[in-house]
Amino acid sequence: MRLPHPLAGRVALVTGASSGIGAAIARCLCEDGLRVVLAARRLDRLLALAEELGPDAHAMQVDLRDEASILTLFEQTRARLGGVDVLINNAGLGRRTTLSDGSTEAWREMLEVNVLALTICTREAIRDIRDMRARGVDGHVLHISSMSAHRVPHASGMYSATKYAVRSLTEGLRQELYEQGSGIRVSSVSPGFVETEFAAVYHGDPSAAERTYGQYKVLEPQDISEAASWVLAQPAHCQVHDVLIRPTRQER
After folding, report:
1. Contact between 101 and 205 (Cβ < 8 Å)
2. Which domain holds residue 36?
3. What tens digit of pLDDT does each residue of 147-161 get?
4. Residue 202 catalytic?
5. Is the residue at 252 inside a domain?
6. pLDDT in the model for residue 205
7. End-to-end alpha-carbon separation of the chain, Å?
8. How many domains does the chain have?
9. Lowest mean pLDDT among 45-49, 75-79, 136-140, 187-191
10. What is the pTM of this model?
11. Is position 3 within any domain?
């Protein structure tokens, strides 16, 4: 039986919630007693997940490459649920493309989703979180980053660059919030190999998932969701900056 979560009853918005780590985090937070906004492009998957999770899960479609769509997402969340207490910036993707002859569109897609959308979502959540003290709690922004924020895998220069950016944005925001005297916390979780749709998208080949995840026991989305729940459950005086999680047999 799960112990009562200190943020039970609060509102969490999870991007990229239609599958993988995002869906697992949504499940975990619903179990923790939070009200969860499920945000992603694939509305059919969101609706199915919301039906599975019950009345505390709310499906809202968003295109993270479109700022107007992101702004609408936050407007709808404020109108329906009163605002965002916890933001989980989970959405992200990689494309296997080199820096010497890679595709500009692939670079742009990674930068727009992994960096710019994360930044816009963070800004909008913090705007709403500014009056959170009236609701009795300070907010929390949690980025799902990557081990690629800490090293550069082969042929992953641009993807890794986007995750290094997330690492920089996490610390930059922490400093801004400190200077403002805010109680809002910012954290990140940096997973290694997790069995999701990532490998198929990254390589542009569904069979790549078996090659990537079949070499040894890799992480499961639930491993990351439990870490996220733990980070959010820490007392107000404790700010977890980054959690690095590798499969035991992952070398780098």
Report:
1. no
2. 11-245
3. 999 999 877 899 999
4. no
5. no
6. 87
7. 35
8. 1
9. 136-140
10. 0.95
11. no
- pLDDT (tens digit, 9 = 90+) per residue, 171-224? 999 999 999 999 999 999 999 999 999 999 998 888 888 888 999 999 999 999
Digit-coded pLDDT (tens) for 16-38: 999 999 999 999 999 999 999 99
Contacts 24+ apart (CB under 8 A), 122-128: 122/87, 122/89, 122/169, 122/173, 124/70, 124/71, 124/74, 124/84, 125/13, 125/74, 125/84, 125/87, 126/184, 128/74, 128/78, 128/83, 128/84
CATH of the domain at 66: 3.40.50.720
Helix (H, G, I), strand (E, B) or coil at 230: helix
Which pLDDT does position 208 carry in this prediction? Answer: 81
Residue 128 domain flag = yes
Look-up of token digits 């929390």: 140
Placement of tokens 């459950």 in the chain: 233
- Block residue for tokens 């922490």: 174
Q: Of the residues 159, 164, 202, 213, which is catalytic?
A: 159
d(CA 4, CA 234): 13
Query: Per the domain annotation, does 110 fall within a domain?
Result: yes
DSSP SS3 for 54: coil
